[in-house]
Design goal:
about 270 residues; globular; three-stranded mixed sheet; 12 helices; alpha/beta
Length: about 270
């Protein structure tokens, strides 16, 4: 059986470990705006493309994990026309469902399969191969993508058509942000009552009030130390407001999250 020729664009703190997991199983080509970002991949045996178009033409499966909608659309406008009919694009960025749908239309015109597949687990999950992969797309595209997803994912779920993965990831991240906001409020309430913060955090993490958001927040020495993560969560909370405006559920999640996120992002 011929090995799947994979490619990856967006080799940052999350995409980089995902791409390394792919390289352990498949031939890999990477592209980065900054050549130095690709140096470690070249040393590990990956090919480094000179352009997005070169990468697209060389690969059967391309993973894309960049920060925002504008970057996704800009890259896909160059990438997809260069991809071969029958190849597949996996969109791992967290973006608006309508952005994923726009990419799917671009892919369909070229005969390229597409799965929107945002992930959860961060860099540690990618390194361990235990990420959750939330997929939207056809059953056929999902089946085509699954062998590559299994290189970095543990729970890989098809949720519906393209865009469904984005919806699930946005809700997940909004809940994470809300949990961190509630963690901030709980620890502040404890301190106001005279309970030492570190002791309370240790107790909650071993008790029924525990959540992953609380666990992460309790490790942060002060909100600004979580600035990068908070900016990502703020973006995703805003995405929920964009796709489900006026909902009491959206408002509750936003209210719980925003006090911490705005403090952390200054």
């Amino acid at each position: 059986m011929t090995a799947i020729r994979t490619g990856f664009i967006g080799i940052g703190s999350q995409g980089g470990p995902m791409a390394h997991r792919m390289l352990a199983r498949f031939p890999l080509t990477v592209w980065a705006r900054r050549p130095e970002a690709a140096a470690a991949f070249a040393e590990a045996g990956a090919e480094v493309a000179g352009s997005v178009e070169e990468l697209g033409a060389a690969c059967d499966h391309v993973g894309l994990c960049v920060v925002n909608d504008a970057d996704v659309l800009d890259i896909c406008a160059k990438l997809v026309p260069a991809m071969k009919s029958g190849s597949l694009l996996a969109l791992h960025s967290t973006v608006l469902p309508e952005t994923a749908e726009a990419v799917e239309r671009l892919c369909a015109a070229r005969g390229v399969a597409m799965v929107d597949a945002p992930v959860s687990g961060g860099s540690p999950g990618a390194q361990a191969g235990t990420m959750t992969v939330m997929c939207g797309g056809s059953a056929e595209a999902f089946e085509q993508a699954q062998p590559v997803f299994e290189s970095f994912g543990k729970l890989i779920v098809l949720l519906g058509p393209v865009g469904a993965g984005q919806k699930a990831k946005i809700v997940n991240n909004a809940l994470m942000a809300a949990n961190m906001g509630l963690a901030q409020a709980a620890l502040q309430a404890g301190e106001a009552l005279g309970v030492e913060r570190r002791a309370l955090a240790e107790l909650v993490n071993a008790s029924s009030g525990r959540s992953f958001g609380f666990e992460v927040y309790a490790r942060v020495p002060e909100p600004r130390a979580f600035e990068h993560g908070a900016r990502m969560l703020l973006k995703d909370t805003d995405l929920l407001a964009a796709i489900l405006p006026g909902s009491p559920d959206t408002q509750l999640l936003e209210t719980s999250a925003k006090s911490f996120l705005l403090l952390a992002t200054g």
